[in-house]
Write the C-alpha cells for this entry.
Amino acid sequence: MLRIRLAVVATLALVAAAPCVAAENVAAESVAASAAADKTAEAQAGTHAVASPDGVLRVEFSLVDGAPRYSASRMGAEIIGPSRMGFKLVDAPAMDAGFVVESVQRNSADTTWTQPWGEVRQVRDHHNELRIALRQKDHRARRLVVVFRVFNDGLAFRYEFPKQPNLGEFNIADELTEFAFASEAQCWWVPAFDQNRYEYVYNQTPLSEAGKVQTPFTLQTADGLCLSVHEAALTDYSSMALTRGEGTKYGAELYPWSDGTKVRAATPFVSPWRTVQAADRPGDLLASTMILNLNEPCQLEDTSWIKPGKYVGVWWEMHVGRSTWGSGEKHGATTENTKRFIDFAAKYGFDGVLVEGWNVGWDGNWMENGEKFSFTQPYPDFDLEGLAAYAAERGVTLVGHHETAGAIAHYEAQLDDAMRLYNRLGVKAVKTGYVEFADGIDRIDADGTRHGEWHHGQFMVRHYRRVAQKAAENRVMVIAHEPIKDTGIRRTLPNFISREGARGQEYNAWSGDGRNPPSHTTVLPFTRMLSGPIDFTPGVFDLKLNSGDRPNDQVSTTLAKQLALYVVLYSPMQMAVDFPEVYEQKLDALQFIRDVAVDWEESRVLDGQIGDYIVVARRQRGGGDWFLGAITDEHGRVLPTLLGFLDRGRRYKAEIYRDANDAHWDTNPEAYVVEEQTVDANTVLTLRLAPGGGQAIRFTPLPPE
Amino acid sequence: MLRIRLAVVATLALVAAAPCVAAENVAAESVAASAAADKTAEAQAGTHAVASPDGVLRVEFSLVDGAPRYSASRMGAEIIGPSRMGFKLVDAPAMDAGFVVESVQRNSADTTWTQPWGEVRQVRDHHNELRIALRQKDHRARRLVVVFRVFNDGLAFRYEFPKQPNLGEFNIADELTEFAFASEAQCWWVPAFDQNRYEYVYNQTPLSEAGKVQTPFTLQTADGLCLSVHEAALTDYSSMALTRGEGTKYGAELYPWSDGTKVRAATPFVSPWRTVQAADRPGDLLASTMILNLNEPCQLEDTSWIKPGKYVGVWWEMHVGRSTWGSGEKHGATTENTKRFIDFAAKYGFDGVLVEGWNVGWDGNWMENGEKFSFTQPYPDFDLEGLAAYAAERGVTLVGHHETAGAIAHYEAQLDDAMRLYNRLGVKAVKTGYVEFADGIDRIDADGTRHGEWHHGQFMVRHYRRVAQKAAENRVMVIAHEPIKDTGIRRTLPNFISREGARGQEYNAWSGDGRNPPSHTTVLPFTRMLSGPIDFTPGVFDLKLNSGDRPNDQVSTTLAKQLALYVVLYSPMQMAVDFPEVYEQKLDALQFIRDVAVDWEESRVLDGQIGDYIVVARRQRGGGDWFLGAITDEHGRVLPTLLGFLDRGRRYKAEIYRDANDAHWDTNPEAYVVEEQTVDANTVLTLRLAPGGGQAIRFTPLPPE
C-alpha cells in the first residue's frame, strides 16, 4: 500500500521531488499501516467506514447497486447525507456505476512537519485513511480508487485513476461528486462562473437559496455547527465550484476548458482532495491545517531565500487617481517617485518597494494590452537598474510586477528572461496580475487559434504553477493577483507566498457606494482566509482619500481597524498602501505597522462570528511578542477578552492601538488612541471596537518579576 | 439630593436598616455629586441624557408635549426607541402627561462592596445617575421623580412618588412603561399570566411574535447584540411582565390583585427598577452585577450564620414514585429512612438532609390541603427531635420544609412558631413551597372573605419578603419553591439564599415526553439565571430512573452533564438528588459533587450561545481551586478551551469528569470517564461534549515548580 501511495506522489511531482530537509520532519516511523483486507459481510456489500483519530467525525462509503456513495457524521449526527461520487467522461462510458470493491486498505498517520513560514510553525498531520479500490464489472474492468482521510477537524477524499490497460489518456466531462448537506444553514458565498475572480462582497443566504458558489464555501447551521467545503492540492485539474441541486444538496461543477471539456488527463492521475472542515465555533475553522496536510511536501531543496516581509510602493496612487500606470505627465513609476518610496522604506524599516507601471505596454486601455507588455523593458523615466542599486544600498529591494492582462502565451514566452532579470537585480518577489479584458484569459494553440479561458480552469491552474516553479528556479517569490484560489500549494512551493483572490482594499478607492462594506473583512477570515494568505493590502490612514482624486470614495473602516487587519488577515507579505506623507503625519500609528510580525509561531482565534467580528492573537515566529487584532462590522462592540495565550510566566507591555471613544467608520474614522498597559495571562482586556472599527495590540514580554 | 435618596432608602427598609458591617464596604468618598441645575435650551425643552461611565450606553429622557419618554443607544446605535413612561391610577387622573421638569440632578458612583456569598465576592457599583423631578401642570401639581442609572453593562430606571400634599394613598391601575426594542431579534421566554410559576420550557421566537412574557426576558439581534429586560428590588410592588404591542414594542404589564388593582401604595413610594442589560456576547450578560447594585444594602446585622452548602434528602423518591409525601406504607419521611440519608450525608460530607412530608397535613390530595398543614407537628413515624439530634451528632443538619399549598394566612399564622422550632432544633435552612391548587394563592381578608391571588402580585411579593425576614430573625435560610422571581433581594436579605422559579429537575421524573429537553439547561443561564441562584437540584446518576417507578420517564442529560450543572447553574445551596445506593455505585463520579464549591470568589463565562452550549469557570471562595462546567444541548460539541483563568503562576491538577466517547443523553447517558491531567493557564483543553452531554473539571493548584 505504501508503494501505491509513493507512486501517486511521484505522479503529482511536476518538478523533481527534492525534500526540504530542514522544513520537512516527517516522523515516518509513526505511520501505522494496517492493510489487512476487510472481509466482513458489510465489506462484501461495499460498505466501509473510517473515523477521525478522536472518533468525532465518521465517513461511510458504500456501493449502492454498484454506484459509489459517501456520507459523513459528526458525534453521531449526520452532516452530509448519502452523496454521489464518480465521473462522466468525454466519449467514453461513465465511471459512476457498475463498480465492485476490489480491495480496501486502511492507514493511520500521526506526523509533524515544520513550515518555512506560516500561521503556525509546527503542523501536525493526524488522520485515518480508507483506500477503496474499485473496478467496473463492465467497461473493460476500468479501475478507480477512492481515498478518504479523516482528521479531527475535517474530512477529505480524492479520486485516483491508476495506470491501467484500458484507461490511458482521457477527458473528464463532469465530476459527479455531491455534498448533500444534512440540514439547512446560513451560508456565505461569492458567485462562481463569473469572470470576476472571486472579487465580490460575500452573500449571506440560506443554504437552500444559494446557486453556484466558489469555495471555500462556509456555512453554519442554526445549531452552531460550522462546515466549510474547499479543495486541496489543485495542481493539474480544473477548479471546483459548487452548484446547488435539490434543497441543500450541492454538486461539484468544474470550470471547463473553452471546448467544454472539464479536465484533460492521462493515467496515472489524481484529482485534488475534496475537503469538508467542521467545527462548533466559526473561529475553530481557522485552526485547521488539514488542507496543508493534504498537499505534497516541499519540493524546493533550499527555502532559506524565502523571507516574509512588508512592503510599500507606487500603487495606491494609481487607484486613488493621483497618478497613472501608463506613461506621461502623471506616470507614477518614475525614478524620482520610486526613490521617495525607497527612502521611506529604508527610514521606517520596510523590506520592499513595489512599483507598478514600470514596464512598457501600459499606455491606452491597458486591460486590452496583453500582447504589448514587455516584462524586461522599463519606461524611459524609470531607471530600473539604478533603482535596484539605490534600494540595495539602503537595505531595501524592489518588488517586481508582471501584469499580463491575461495574455498567457505572450507572458510565458518572456517568463525566463523576466525572472532571470529579477534574479540578477536582487528582486526577491514579483506581484503578478491577470486583469483580463472581455473574452477571458487568452490561450493560443500551436496553430495560432485563440481561445478564451476561465481563470479557474485547468489551463490556468497549470500556468500559475508553472510561474511559481519558474520563479523558484530564480529565487523569486510570487504574489499573484487575480489568481487561482489557494489550495495549499504553498506547502509544496513555498515561494508562492501570497495572492489576492478576494475583493481587496483597491475596491475602496474607486467603487463609490459599491466599496467594501465594514462587514467585508469580518467575513473573509471564515471564508477566503481558510484557503491561505491574502495580499489584501491594508494600512490606509487617509480614510476619506483626501490625498487622492476620489471625492466619492472612502475606506469603510476606522484607522485602528486598518492596523488590526495586519493580524487578522494573514499574509507573510504585507503591504502598507498609503503615502509616505500620510504616514509621517501619524508616526505613532505607523509604529504598529513597523512592529507587527508577518511570520508566526502560533495563531489563535480567540472569538468570532461570521460577518460580525473576530479577535485573533498570533505569536511572532522566533520571538516572544504576541500581536492581537480585533475587528468588527458596522456595529460597535465591547468584547472583554482574557489574555490566557500570553506566557503564563511573564508580564507584558501592551501597546494598544484602539478606536477613540467617538470613532466611527463613516463619520470619524481617523480618531484613534495609542496607549500602554501592563498585562499578563490573567488580564481581561475590554476590547472596545467602534462601529466599523478595530483594535491592534503588541504584547512585549517584560523582564521577569 | 443625597438626603432625598436616604429618605427613599428608609422608606424601602421594611425591617430596621442595620448595615452589615463586614459585608458592606461602601467607598462613600468616591461618590461624586454634581447637582448643578441643567440650564441649557435642551434641558428647558425637557431633554436630558446620561451615559454609562465608559460612554458605551446612553439614555435620553424627554418630555414630548409634557409626556415622559426615554430612549437608549449603545455605541451610537439605538437599542430602545422612544418609549412611554408613567402611570394610570385608580380613581385619579393619570400621571403620564402634562408634566414639566422641576429639577434635574446628576450623580456618579464608583463603590465596591462585598457579598456574604455569591458568584463573585467583590461587587463594583459604577454608574452615572440622572434624576429628573417632574411636576404636573394640572392635577394639583402632583410630583413624580424618574431616576436613571446607567452602568457599563446595562441601564435601569425607576419611579419615585415623593411625599406630597396631593398624593397620599393611591392605587396604580397600570404602569405605562414601554420597551420599544429598536430591531427584530430572537427571544427566549416563558409565558406570563399563567399560574404555572415560571415552570416552562423556554420558547424561542422572533421578538415580533412573542406575546406576554415573564422576565428576565432575553433577546439577541441578528447582529449578535444581547439584551435582557428584568427588574430589580421588587420589594413592595407587583411583578412586571411584558406584553407585546406593535412589532417589537413591549409594555410593562403588572400582575393585578384579585380586585384588578395593580399596586397599592402610599407616598413616599418607589417602584422597582426596570433594567435592561446589554452585551455583545450572551455569556457577557452573566457577568453583570447591575441588579444586585440596584438593591438596598444588607439589612442583617450579622450574616455569619448564613452558610452555603450541599444537601441530600427524602425528596427524589417521591418524584420517581418510590414513596409518598403522605403517611402510610410508602411514607418517605420516616425516622429510619431519614437516618439512612443522615448517615450518607455524614459519610460523604454533605451539610444537610432535606425531608419532605415530615409534617402532618399531606394525606389525600395535598395540593388541596393548604389549611391542613401543621408546620410544627411531625407525623408519628418521624422523630423530629431525635433526628435533629442524630444529625447534629454526625455534623449534619436537617433542612426544614414548609409546603403551604398557597394557604398564606394559615401559614403566616404559624410562621413564628415554625421558625422558632427550626431555630431551636438547629435547622439552618427551610425549603418553602407554594403549589397552589385551582384558584391561585389563597388570601383571606380580615372579614374572612377569600381571594385567589397570583404568585406574582404585590400580595405575594410582600409575603415572600415577610417569610425571609421572619426566617432571618430565627437565623434560618430560605430556599423558596414556586417563588416570586428573584430581583436581587439577596443583597438586602442574604438569608433568602436560593429559590426555584423555573422548570427544575423534578419535571424529568414525571413528565414523560414532556420532560426537560437537553437544551433546557443551556437556555436557563441566559434567562432565569440572570435573576439569581436556582435550586434546580442536579445530580441524577440513575438517568433512566430504574430505581424508581417511572418507566416512561428519564433525565435528558448524560451523567457528566449532571455534574457540570453544579458549576453552570449557580446556587449557594445545591442538592444532590439521587439515592445513597445509586451514588455508592459510582463513587468516582460522586467525588465531584463532594468536591465542588458552592460559594465563589469569581466567575467567568468562557463561552456560550443561548440554547446551544455554555462553558463556565468559577474559583472557590477562600481557596485556590477552580471548577469548570460545560454543557450542551442535543448536539454533541467539541470546544477547544484556553484555561487562561488559572493563576498564571501555577500548575494545576485537573480532575476531569467527561462523557465517554460513545455517550449520548438518550441511548447511553451513564457512560463517563474520570481522568487526570496537569494543566496551566496556557493549556488548551478540548472539551468534548456528547449529544446532551457535559463536562465537569476541578482544578487544584500544584506546589510551585
User: Anything to note?
Assistant: Residues 1-38 of chain A have pLDDT under 50 and may be disordered. Chain A has 14 helices and 40 strands. The CA atoms of residues 168 and 267 of chain A lie 5 Å apart.
